[in-house]
Design a protein that fits this description.
This protein is of the alpha/beta class. The protein has a single domain (about 5-105), classed as STAS domain (Transcription Regulator spoIIAA, 2-Layer Sandwich). The chain contains three helices and five strands. Helix 1 (about 30-40) runs parallel beside helix 2 (about 60-70). It is globular, with a radius of gyration of 13 Å.
């Protein structure tokens, strides 16, 4: 399976949402890094990564989230939503789950415009 990533920035709320699908590994990590760099140019208070359709997360993918956490600093909340068990396990094994907020998709209510 390939990799897809799409970003939506709601500058009114200061939330950047990135939807990830497929396998996030060393060949696809640069795409996520590009989106993170782009997001950093916006007024961000919260970055949400939607992981429901992410089937694999390698150490390169974990590094992307760590870099985002460092780039945005402590004033920006990073939320990982809907991680599948195999992806959540990777996050837990690396300890990243203690540095970000992890939520089940069912716990999140989304309102979008357009």
């Amino acid at each position: 399976m390939g990799f897809k990533a799409r970003m939506y920035a709601d500058e009114g709320s200061g939330t950047v949402t990135i939807t990830l699908a497929g396998e996030l590994d060393s060949s696809s990590a640069p795409r996520l890094n590009e989106l993170i760099v782009e997001a950093a140019t916006k007024p961000v208070e919260r970055m949400v990564l939607l992981l429901e359709r992410l089937s694999y997360l390698s150490s390169a993918g974990v590094r992307c989230v760590v870099v985002a956490h460092q780039r945005f600093g402590p004033g920006v909340e990073i939320v990982l939503v809907g991680a599948r068990p195999e992806v959540a396990e990777t996050l837990q094994l690396t300890g990243l789950d203690r540095s970000v907020t992890m939520q089940d998709a069912a716990d999140v209510r989304w309102t979008t415009t357009g």
